[in-house]
Write a structure and sequence with these properties.
It is a single chain. The protein is an alpha/beta fold and 334 residues long. A nine-stranded mixed beta sheet has the order 1-2-5-4-3-6-7-14-13, with helices on both faces. Strands 8-9-12 form a three-stranded antiparallel beta sheet.
Length: 334
């Protein structure tokens, strides 16, 4: 996460603009301190994605236990030819773009003669991830224009300029599950307001399934999810200059049946006093206290349909795998 460099990275057909300095590191510090000092301490999951966090998550997506990525990609491969060749010229906006594995599936399905008419707009909070992805895509698909934004799309979506082209807005990877139902509604409502006739919004939803499968996906035998979870403390240390030590916390992940979500926490394994020049007073953790780092809500079709209804969206297509483990839902404006 780069809050300092305001310049534009440009290379051949790649242009990446960093919008994070408009938020400023001070706002992030306030957000982090507010979360850490809450009655139930928490850190927003967006802070997972520094350079190391992005690399660890990419490794996680390759694990046998972690079904969401490969399941979503199998659906994408099936539907991409139909979705990607409806228009000869359009924009693809990918929110939380991460690596280029998903967008590559979509771009591979486009008739090569039309690739030069495609403008790809990745939006991600990790400048490292977005630059690496753009460089890789420029080799695979040298015809396309890439106009990327390093941004917090929850707060900065309105700063992504519109063109006159039809748009496919993709919000994949079940990222919407990281937000509360209330915040998911706000996100979809904001996206729906920007849709015009002919635009599509493609959203990935992880579906409810057995607890055994869910718990295994977030407690992998290689310990990568544990490293990923603990690394958020290193990110926080860099922003608020705190003295968290990852060895002082244990990875805790479980399925909350009542709230239909996987929860990830960091549990203190001893009494701690955390210092920072930005804290009004040190923050105390007793052994067993936890910091809530991520939710991953699991959906049913009924909940998705209700979301569409209250956000003024229409479900155009509903795609799933043979096990009904994951769904890609294409929304349009009413």
């Amino acid at each position: 996460m780069n809050f300092d460099e305001t310049g534009i990275f440009q290379k051949q057909k790649i242009r990446i603009k960093n919008l994070l300095p408009k938020i400023g590191i001070e706002q992030s510090r306030k957000e982090i301190i507010y979360g850490l000092t809450a009655e139930n301490p928490r850190i927003s999951s967006k802070y997972f994605y520094d350079e190391l966090g992005s690399e660890l998550f990419e490794e996680i997506t390759q694990l046998q236990e972690y079904y969401p990525t490969r399941t979503e990609q199998s659906i994408l491969r099936n539907i991409a030819p139909e979705i990607m060749n409806r228009n000869l010229s359009f924009e693809i906006i990918e929110l939380g773009s991460g690596d280029c594995s998903k967008i590559s599936i979509l771009l591979n399905a486009i008739d090569k003669i039309n690739l030069e008419n495609i403008n790809y707009i990745p939006v991600d909070i990790s400048d490292t991830a977005i630059k690496n992805s753009a460089n890789e895509l420029s080799v695979k698909f040298p015809q396309i224009e890439i106009d990327g934004y390093v941004a917090d799309f929850i707060h900065q979506l309105d700063q992504i300029p519109h063109s006159e082209k039809s748009r496919l807005i993709s919000f994949l990877g079940s990222t919407i599950g990281n937000f509360s139902k209330k915040d998911a509604k706000k996100i979809l409502l904001n996206l729906s307001k920007g849709l015009i006739r002919g635009d599509s919004l493609l959203v990935g939803f992880d579906l409810v399934k057995s607890e055994k499968v869910l718990n295994a996906a977030y407690n992998d035998s290689n310990g990568l999810t544990e490293k990923f979870n603990k690394n958020i403390l290193n990110v926080i240390n860099g922003i608020v200059e705190s003295d968290f030590k990852i060895e002082d916390f244990d990875h805790l992940s479980f399925f909350n049946t009542e709230k239909s979500r996987i929860e990830m926490h960091l549990e203190a394994n001893k009494d701690l006093v955390i210092q920072s020049p930005f804290f009004e007073t040190p923050i105390n953790f007793e052994k067993g206290d936890s910091i809530h780092t991520e939710n991953s809500h699991k959906y049913t079709f009924e909940i998705i349909a209700e979301l569409a209804k209250i956000t003024d969206l229409e479900i155009k297509n509903y795609y799933t795998d043979s096990k009904d483990w994951f769904a890609l839902v294409e929304f349009t404006t009413r």
